């Protein structure tokens, strides 16, 4: 059993930055690939970033490439999402999720599993609001 608790959300003006954290309970954090999803009002929950078990491979959805950075510290059982140059369209509830199965690789690029039901554990979500 893994419990995930997000923190770091809030309100920021466009162009600003936030750093989300997701703290995991248990001793098996390093066994899980991790993903950050977001859900905007009236829209589906989608993956925006993911990281492999070791932290050596990452994935970003096109709209956040170059602005968001995912990282993890397995010694601290924590995964982070640094969000820079925030835009109004980044407004959403952000969730971290743990997947016991790691994604695959295609032509050297990490391809995480992206469906909600692929992930075994979820945090409660943290609201990010970006004002334009």
Concise structural overview:
Helices cover 0% and strands 50% of the residues. The protein is an all-beta fold and 132 residues long.
What secondary-structure arrangement, pairings included, does this model have?
Layout: E1 4-7, E2 10-13, E3 18-24, E4 33-39, E5 45-51, E6 58-60, E7 68-73, E8 78-83, E9 92-99, E10 104-106, E11 109-111, E12 121-122, E13 126-131
Parallel strand pairs: 2-13
Antiparallel strand pairs: 1-3, 3-8, 4-5, 4-9, 5-6, 7-8, 9-12, 9-13, 10-11
Distance N terminus to C terminus? 40 Å
Our estimate of the beta-strand percent is over 45%
| Structural class estimated from helices and strands | mainly beta
N to C succession of SSEs: EEEEEEEEEEEEE
Give me the count of strands. 13
Low-confidence runs: none
How large, in whole angstroms, is the Cα Rg?
Answer: 14 Å
Biggest beta sheet summary? 7 strands, mixed
- Helical proportion, percent range: under 10%
How confident is the prediction overall: mean pLDDT? 96
SS element count, helices: 0
* Cα shape: globular
């Amino acid at each position: 059993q893994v419990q995930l608790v997000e923190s770091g959300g809030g309100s920021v003006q466009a162009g600003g930055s936030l750093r989300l954290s997701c703290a995991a309970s248990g001793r098996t954090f390093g066994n899980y690939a991790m993903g950050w999803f977001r859900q905007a009002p009236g829209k589906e929950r989608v993956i925006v970033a993911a990281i492999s078990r070791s932290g050596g491979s990452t994935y970003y959805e096109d709209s956040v490439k170059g602005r968001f950075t995912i990282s993890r510290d397995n010694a601290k059982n924590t995964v982070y999402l640094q969000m820079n140059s925030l835009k109004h369209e980044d407004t959403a509830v952000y969730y971290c999720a743990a997947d016991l199965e790691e994604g695959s690789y295609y032509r050297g690029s990490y391809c995480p599993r992206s469906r909600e039901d692929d992930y075994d554990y979820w945090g409660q979500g943290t609201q990010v609001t970006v004002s334009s």
